[in-house]
Amino acid sequence: MEYIIRDATAQDMDQVLVLIHELAMFEKEPEAVEVTVDELIEEGFGQHPLFHCFVAEVDNEIVGIALVYYRFSTWKGRTIHLEDLIVKESMRGTGLGSALYKEVMKYAQSKGVRRVEWVVLDWNKNAIDFYEKSGAKLLKDWYLAQMDEKGLENFISKF
């Protein structure tokens, strides 16, 4: 199987959003995706892009993506966060995910960051095994904390 990994373009965002929805199904959260193609285009390719996206293509179809952005660590300085690495279900097990992962790590190294970080679901054994074999450290003593829009409204109104 021949594939190409390249930087995404604004024109790719329709297909990227399809993969985002596929990931939401895989993660058992099919209704969670709120982002639109227009938002992806504006936020990724507008005046001040908030993310960088790699796409993997087979026969002109996008079958995988890796979306990253900069974060700042008070301990490490500039880091990169891998928001999502998505491989179309029919392409899993082909090495495509590994190739996208390697592309992210090469990108991070070329940008001179001190760390790449991401989140993996505790039940995604295949991903966990892969990341550990790659040399990544899984931090089991930390919780991921989030506050959604409703939580923000409630917090602001109470405090």
Automatic annotation (TrEMBL):
Q: Which InterPro entries match?
A: AcTrfase_GNAT_prd (IPR017255), Acyl_CoA_acyltransferase (IPR016181), Diverse_Substrate_AcTransf (IPR051016), GNAT_dom (IPR000182)
Q: Where is the N-acetyltransferase domain?
A: 3-153
Keyword annotations from UniProtKB, A to Z: Acyltransferase, Transferase
**Molecular function, one GO term:** N-acetyltransferase activity
One Pfam family cited in the UniProt record for this chain: Acetyltransf_1
Could you tell me the superkingdom of the organism this chain comes from?
Bacteria
Instruction: Note the Gene3D superfamilies from the entry.
Output: 3.40.630.30
Report the family membership. Answer: Belongs to the acetyltransferase family.
PANTHER family from the UniProt entry: DIAMINE N-ACETYLTRANSFERASE, GH14572P-RELATED
The identity of this protein, by name, is GNAT family N-acetyltransferase
Organism of derivation: Aquimarina mytili
